[in-house]
Design brief:
With about 290 residues, the protein is α/β, with parallel strands linked by helices. It has a domain of about 200 residues: Rossmann fold. It is built from ten helices and 14 strands. The chain has a five-stranded parallel beta sheet. It has a three-stranded antiparallel beta sheet with strand order 3-2-6, with no helix packed on it. A hairpin with a 5-residue loop joins β2 and β3. The protein is globular, with a radius of gyration of 24 Å. The termini are far apart. The relative contact order is 0.13.
């Protein structure tokens, strides 16, 4: 106790306080940013590096109509004040399937309104990784490292998106003239769920019952996968959005818009998660009764 008192008294000394402040300022000014060029110098020498596919997550792809009218994210005014009712999907009354119309994905949302979404990943691939952007349908000679960006309509059923990913990878194999080519994948959020489903089940829809037969179709086409922030056991936030909407800017996308997006249902918490807690503090079995 006496030693502690002496230490406090010493710290009250102006000279000691000045030293502490200088040391603190020095620590605060120290950057923890890694030297990526040096870190990946050895990796750039790997001649076996296959193409890389970047898959964005929910709301990570820009969407536009056939007339090039962007419905997501739109203008800065839209982000701040729109409820995005124009992005709502129409539901066919007979099949109960969404009608997409002429909406298509155009590009990844790299940076918008001063906020970095995927630009830093792309910048790292290009600068530190030495990758060059490629697009499907372009024949590429062996040698340079290439990366692709897979954009998709994130409102739609993920199984639908998985089938588009399969076509995307098959076209890359054609472009590289290698029918056995495997790719590496960097996937964020829901993009990781799409890639994981593809690796296990391929293009087969296994969501209609509880059998889930695994065929590893995608595992023959993907060598490595890096998942960033992927809710593998679902997200409570998706369920919350169905109740209160999802805040974008100064407004919310209302629940009656979100419930038309099949992908949002596929983000619900997995039954393995105890995500509902009763008043007694005990988990509630949502499948009971």
């Amino acid at each position: 106790m006496i030693k502690g008192t002496k230490m406090i008294n010493r710290l009250r000394n102006p000279a000691c306080m000045l030293v502490v402040l200088i040391l603190g300022a020095g620590c605060a000014g120290t950057t923890s940013k890694p030297d990526l060029d040096r870190l990946y110098e050895t990796a750039r020498q790997d001649v076996e590096q296959p193409p890389v596919i970047l898959i964005p997550g929910l709301m990570g792809s820009r969407l536009a109509t056939g007339e090039d009218e962007e419905i997501w994210p739109g203008s800065l005014f839209d982000v701040m004040f729109s409820s995005y009712r124009h992005a709502q999907l129409e539901i066919d009354p007979d099949s109960l399937l969404p009608v997409t119309g002429d909406v298509r994905p155009t590009e990844i949302t790299g940076k918008f309104a001063g906020r970095d979404f995927y630009e830093s990943i792309i910048r790292t691939l290009e600068s530190a990784g030495g990758f060059k952007r490629a697009r499907v349908g372009e024949s590429l000679p062996p040698g340079p490292r290439h990366y692709y960006i897979f954009t998709y309509d994130w409102r739609l059923d993920n199984v639908h998106t998985v089938r588009l990913l399969d076509e995307f990878i098959e076209q890359i194999r054609i472009d590289h003239a290698d029918p056995d080519l495997q790719v590496d994948v960097i996937a964020h959020s829901m993009g990781g769920m799409i890639a994981r489903y593809y690796m296990r089940y391929g293009t087969v829809d296994v969501t209609m019952d509880n059998e889930f037969p695994v065929n590893y179709h995608g595992a023959d086409r993907i060598r490595r996968i890096v998942m960033l922030g992927t809710p593998n056991l679902g997200s409570v936030e998706s369920l919350k959005a169905f109740i209160v909407g999802r805040r974008i800017g100064l407004r919310r996308i209302p629940p009656d818009v979100l419930i038309t997006f099949p992908s949002f249902y596929q983000l619900f918490p997995h039954p393995l998660n105890d995500w509902l807690i009763g008043m007694d503090g005990e988990p509630i079995d949502v499948d009971r009764g």
